[in-house]
Write a structure and sequence with these properties.
Length: 219
């Protein structure tokens, strides 16, 4: 893992720099993710959960991570298309419920969610809109807290490493319920299932920036 972190910090100005601070990203092994239309409807389970994604800008060249972070802070969604891998959907925490809609939009596709608030971590494997494995420690991001939780059966990474993540229900503090699942472990999982060394600007196809609207923002 130490070698992975050396790669990460060496490339902090490249795409892996998007993992500095907090991040929320969904990976789908599809290119392109959306058709060429400028506005895409991503239905939710209920009508008021539907998102409307309007293409704001398309970039053929990589954006510096700090510029990407500014777009996310503004409540927008960014899709990075990476050759040989697929599409990476970045949002801020308040918009990350978009991932719930996306997991239903592409049946038959195995997708992954990676997130961290800095100290805590979140990971999910989905197939056909169903959770195969979820590992989450306590996180606090943008004024919203989430509890430690595991769902599904241990994933291949856990079985290969021999370490299955578990919640300690007797912990006195929320962060102590799963102290062994941090950003470090999330990056480990990203490297295992995606490949951090492949997530580089040299493989970038394009960057798409979308404005997001739902029932709440349309009021």
């Amino acid at each position: 893992m130490s070698s992975l972190f050396r790669v990460f910090w060496r490339t902090a100005s490249d795409l892996p720099g998007l993992f500095s601070g907090n991040f929320h990203v969904m990976y789908l092994p599809l290119l392109p993710l959306f058709p060429a239309e400028k506005q895409i409807c991503v239905p939710g389970y209920y009508s008021d959960q539907t998102y409307y994604c309007t293409l704001r800008k398309e970039y053929a060249a990589p954006l510096a991570p700090y510029r990407c972070k500014k777009q996310l802070k503004a409540g927008r969604c960014m899709i990075l298309e990476v050759n040989g891998l697929g599409s990476f959907v970045f949002t801020n925490h308040r918009r990350s419920d978009l991932f719930l809609n996306l997991q239903r939009k592409f049946p038959g596709v195995t997708s992954y969610v990676f997130a961290s608030d800095g100290p805590g971590g979140y990971f999910k494997i989905l197939k056909d809109g169903r959770i195969q494995r979820k590992i989450a420690s306590y996180m606090w991001s943008e004024g919203i807290g989430s509890y430690a939780e595991t769902l599904g059966t241990p994933c291949t990474y856990e079985l290969e490493t021999g370490h299955v993540f578990k919640v300690d229900p007797k912990a006195q503090h929320l962060r102590e319920m799963m102290p062994d699942f941090t950003k470090r472990e999330v990056l480990d999982l990203f490297d295992y299932y995606v490949g951090l060394k492949c997530f580089q600007s040299t493989n970038l196809r394009r960057v798409l920036v979308y404005d997001l609207e739902n029932a709440e923002t349309k009021k």
